[in-house]
Amino acid sequence: MSSSTTAIRRLKLLNRTLGIGSMKHRVTVIGSGNWGSAIAKIVAENAKGNPDVFHEEVKMFVSKHSGSRNLTSIINTIHENPKYLPGIALPPNLFATPSLPDAVSEASILIFNVPHQFVSNICRQINGSCLPYARAISCIKGVDVSPDGVSLFSDTIGRKLGIYCGALSGANIASEVAKEKFSETTIAYAPPEGPTEDFPKGLTPVPEELPTVDHALLKTLFHTSYFHVRVVSDVAGVSLGGALKNIVALAAGFVDGLEWGDNAKAAVMRVGLLEMRKFGKMFFGKSCKSATFTEESCGVADLITSCNGGRNHKCAMLSVRTGKSIETVEGEELNGQKLQGTITAREVNVYLKNKGLEHEFPLFTAVYRILNGETNVESLPQLIETD
Amino acid sequence: MSSSTTAIRRLKLLNRTLGIGSMKHRVTVIGSGNWGSAIAKIVAENAKGNPDVFHEEVKMFVSKHSGSRNLTSIINTIHENPKYLPGIALPPNLFATPSLPDAVSEASILIFNVPHQFVSNICRQINGSCLPYARAISCIKGVDVSPDGVSLFSDTIGRKLGIYCGALSGANIASEVAKEKFSETTIAYAPPEGPTEDFPKGLTPVPEELPTVDHALLKTLFHTSYFHVRVVSDVAGVSLGGALKNIVALAAGFVDGLEWGDNAKAAVMRVGLLEMRKFGKMFFGKSCKSATFTEESCGVADLITSCNGGRNHKCAMLSVRTGKSIETVEGEELNGQKLQGTITAREVNVYLKNKGLEHEFPLFTAVYRILNGETNVESLPQLIETD
């Protein structure tokens, strides 16, 4: 039996003994894209399966901007999201709502799963209507890199709403998770115990009548037989993996474009993985753990997936093969969408340059310079050669 | 400038100042297969390029059993090994010899690169003729697993010859290294400083007139612009990676056979990597380092390569796709050669079973049971699910 199952059983027993337990967590998913819907499917199934801890009803906020006026009522009628997750049955205890206040006002656990450009606006709309003791998990991939610093979407959400927000990231493709194909993910959750810069008075405590929101409870909410969850405490590491891997995937694509073979590609991936970790440790300090990058799904596994089949890898490979610029390939292949890797590579380079630290990250810097036409792919081994 | 280059320059200066330096290392490669010849090419080039530290002449032992009676003279005439590494120019300062005493009698650095089944016999033939202060590096992939224990080829060589032997392993394919395609490798070297069980009187010290055999010197001997070397101290970890990865590659092949997608494959690889490390730490103690598995070429990079394109992965995938046993696929695909992964999976299982530790290694155990027909591939996620 897993430790999370054990914890829940113990809780049930305790509640029965003490005659409490009437308070349960209400869970809401904010976002109804393909990843939002896939995650909503899982947490709704787990909420129903653990009635002592969670209210059966799970809400899912569907934005007016989701492109379909009556998507909410369609989802609630046919229990499917035909726009973003067609062909996948959603649990009947998942209720779509077009109203943010309705979605969040009673929820003690909020799961954010919206495109990153909407985060600020959604938080502005929520502010004031969510429970002060709510806890959140951000499933938004990546980080926000500006010339001055790197900020985590989970921190942005937490600060704007005055609640704590952790993060979920892993080697996951929404459509595969929705089809219940096996994968793993990593959740990071480590609410501060005392006052912090973001929470000068400390967090509003979760009422004692509610089950404690801890690693075991989060595992109960997210883990399934086909979606294995590991919960850690390194929010920065979990968030950085999903952004920085895209730079490495470009490098792997370049090497595949040159047909240098699997060993050269594995070498570039290894060097990239260590630069991802170094970036985390250098800019997020001791809270950022080595193991998050080298041992967890959000690190090494997500990197492997992205270097095998992701769009960054593909466009970089085609760019080398055809001799076209990566922007041209992007235009031809992605149907108007933008490559995340090239954006992140440039943002990270501006940041590193600002700090005078380009030389500490030879692979990240090489990828940027290759994208920028300042060097060629053939120089990669020489550029990443170290003492 | 690399630290190894700096070390060599300092040495040159010191020798010139002190008027010494007439003694240099003589390097011999034992073995002339494709990996032996590729490694011999590299060390001969580096010996020539560093004349203050190494004698220019590098010898390569060519066994009578290499299948070609006059291979030695052919190699020495055309500077190519047409049998095992056709089309690759070997440096003129590499001299093939059919005599083991001739190959080893003057060599202060011995590089072993023979098929593992010949190790004992070769050591028997060498014993007595090698220098007592010689140091060795084993490039023989893998480890020897018996029901009673796991032994390293480097330890076997060291014990039988009474000299210290380190190990080299990484994401390398001989033919690609020979063609100077980019890859990385890991060397482990950590001679004991005092008496040990294998060396009750301690090692015979290297004469002071010879350059110290340390990490910097080994990097000088093996590192090139296309073959990047990192030197560590964890001989067990470096050796285990090359063996245990094959079990994981079978699991990855099974998952690909089911077409479960890149994320499922990455998950299995991540779980496998951590079991490789756990195996090392459990049976080789503190000398076995986490980082060797999760950060070095011999660990994570070699694993990635083997799960992408190796024969273990391929046969496992075809076995699932066709419904044929892996032995049948092996017979059809490998032209008489044997899969290393199935042998290692069985050997490791016997060893773990002997120790009552099968349950501590759910992926290794699952692979064994799948091979043995005791469970099916579809159960993998459930079998590797942990707390």
UniProtKB/TrEMBL annotation, chains A, B:
Oxidoreductase found in the keyword field: yes
Q: Which GO terms describe its molecular function?
A: glycerol-3-phosphate dehydrogenase (NAD+) activity; NAD binding; protein homodimerization activity
Query: Which PROSITE patterns does this one have?
Result: NAD_G3PDH
This enzyme catalyses: sn-glycerol 3-phosphate + NAD(+) = dihydroxyacetone phosphate + NADH + H(+)
Which SUPFAM superfamilies does this UniProt record tie to the protein?
6-phosphogluconate dehydrogenase C-terminal domain-like, NAD(P)-binding Rossmann-fold domains
What's the EC number here? 1.1.1.8
Its name, as the record gives it, is: Glycerol-3-phosphate dehydrogenase [NAD(+)]
Source domain of life = Eukaryota
Report residues binding substrate: 141, 311-312
Source organism of the structure: Choiromyces venosus 120613-1
One family from Pfam that matches here is NAD_Gly3P_dh_C
Binding residues annotated for NAD(+), in chain numbering: 31-36, 118, 174, 311, 338, 340
EC class name: oxidoreductase
**UniProt-annotated catalytic positions:** 245
> What GO biological process, any one, is recorded here?
glycerol-3-phosphate catabolic process
**What are its GO cellular component terms?**
cytosol; nucleus
Q: Where is the Glycerol-3-phosphate dehydrogenase NAD-dependent N-terminal domain?
A: 27-191
The record's comment on protein family reads:
Belongs to the NAD-dependent glycerol-3-phosphate dehydrogenase family.
